[in-house]
Design a protein that fits this description.
elongated; 75% helix; single chain; mainly alpha; 135 residues
Length: 135
């Protein structure tokens, strides 16, 4: 069973952003599966790196979209992105150094952040774009 199951409820109404959110959900589910199955540290490490890297790509794409359409909450939204990047980088460094391992607490944090971010923060730009005829 996946950690997060994609549903239309998570859609922000933009095909590109939805596609990227689906990929993020997939990477997070892969990390969860690897953790549950006791995969080697190398596998966990690579999936964690994939999550970190793709999150940066997605955040950049999202911020470009917001900038292109003068989304009024762009700077607040981008600040949330920077906060998550810093938190995930810190989790990864602790994991790499052996101070921490990928636990359900870590997975719950990532799941809650992604789900809440999409459902609350990202849905706001979706509504803004729709109300302004952007998509």
């Amino acid at each position: 069973m996946p950690l997060i199951k994609w549903s239309e409820e998570l859609s922000v109404g933009n095909a590109e952003m939805d596609s990227e959110h689906i990929k993020l959900v997939g990477i997070l589910n892969s990390l969860y599966d690897a953790m549950k199955e006791g995969k080697s540290k190398d596998v966990l490490n690579q999936v964690f790196l994939d999550l970190i890297e793709y999150t940066k790509v997605h955040f950049s794409d999202e911020e470009k979209l917001m900038s292109r359409h003068n989304y009024p909450e762009m700077f607040t939204h981008a600040s949330m992105h920077r906060d998550l990047e810093a938190q995930v980088a810190a989790l990864y460094e602790r994991y790499k150094s052996g101070q921490s391992f990928i636990s359900m607490d870590v997975m719950d944090f990532l799941k809650d952040w992604l789900s809440n971010h999409i459902m609350q923060t990202d849905k706001k730009y979706g509504a803004f774009f729709r109300s302004n005829g952007i998509y």
